[in-house]
Amino acid sequence: MNTKKRNFDVLHDGSLTKSVAFTREEREQLGLRGLLPYSVANQDMQVTRVMHGLRRKAYDIERYILLSALQDRNEKLFYKVVIDHIEEVMPLIYTPTVGQACKEFSHIFKRSKGFYITPEDKGEISKILDNWPEKDIRVIVITDGQRILGLGDLGANGMGIPIGKLALYTACAGIKPHQCLPVMLDVGTNNEDILNDVLYLGYPKKRLEGDAYFELVEEFVTTIQKKYPDALIQFEDFLTPNAYALLNKYKERVLCFNDDIQGTASVALAGVYASTRITNTDFKDLKIMFLGAGSAATGIADLMISAFMDAGLTKEEAAKHLWFVDINGLVVSGRDDLMEHNMPYAHDHEQLNFMDSIKSIKPHVLIGATGAPGTFTKAVIEEMAANNERPVVFALSNPTSRAECTAEQAYTWSNGKAIFASGSPFDNVTFNGTEFRPGQGNNAYVFPGIGLGAISCKAKIIPDELFLTAAKTLAQLVKQDDINSGSLYPKLTEIRKLSLEIAIAVADKAFELDLAQIDKPKDLRQFISDYMFDPQY
Predict the structure, then answer these.
(1) 510 is in which domain, residue-wise?
(2) pLDDT 10s digits, 352-372
(3) 531 labelled catalytic
């Protein structure tokens, strides 16, 4: 091991330590004799020990805390555990458990993992960023905590989201841990329960809004471009109006994207592409209805416009295939309560409630992005099944407790006809002797690969073409065995391979669009593979 550190300095450095896996020679070289038990364990044995401890815990939040501590204590072992047991561990380090972890963040806080910016730091963001020890940052995930999953305004407690997302960047796509920077734009919270919590660790004031808010974001973005010119900025869990305002402001001049808008769109589009292999309906003929008209749903529709145009439709024709229902009913042109991002989907049609909209429009695909659990009722699923031989139902709201319906409900209420996907994981369901594996439309299928591809070629920006490329690539990677089991997505156990394929396709497209800032390597696959972090000792 190439390090100047010795003794406990090595053992207590999470990025260096192997703990009891240090060999006899390494123990001699690094001054570790007498500081460790006699036995030398290999990394696989350590993984087994961690999993035994994990499974002994009674609650998922306890498992989250255990894994968080492991990440601090032994970075490589943490990522080996995540990669080797991705289906079991991903729900613990991200959705759905991360939702509870965010709600309790100030109560379970042990050790800082990220960077915090408050209104008091205005004019000094560059100065305080000098305190961050790493200088080669490639991926930044930033949130202001105002719309965490389906849980709302959690203020600085939302830091669990950037931490979790970046752990997935490393585990799923091999972004080097030291090149990741979680950022909390802590501009206060309007959540009175949080403000009244004596243990709350965030900026204890009402939210900064208006010009002052956007000026703080602008200072952050311009500072990042100067200090870390190769860094990708991922905006995460911002309130819809701010999410769109920031994306529209920066997407054509900064290497950035909003995962709730564009990542969700890419993974959902991939699932819809894959569903056509089951329904035998041409993509360009699909009618798609969204319940919910926020940033996630509108982001999906915006990318689907590009997909329909790619299939030969005009932009106007494409929009007619996409319908929205929000809390006030069908989004139609006669309404005066719509936001700007809803206007392209406000069609000439009578005002209807959700159920009557399904009966009138007869969509092939129903996508929920509401944060409101149970909104896909038995009557809704039955109507979808009455109109379609194989109705496609996406219940995308996170965490699991917020899903529009469960997998079991979708299969049962449709008499086994539904093609179901969700945002959070559901167990396999057996109905009338058939076992279904519900696909999870998890953004982790796309955002790590998109990020890896973008930073590998030093892309200038990430336009819609790259998200469309990612969606097509992911859909092509769905195997027939997945389709046969009713799943629209590959198994998570393949996630590193999937991310590599998406990264190659995204980088290749960036070169094609003249967005890359390096010369194209002769072997792009090898070039990207060589970059990827391997947690094996």
Answers:
(1) 445-520
(2) 999 999 999 999 999 999 989
(3) no
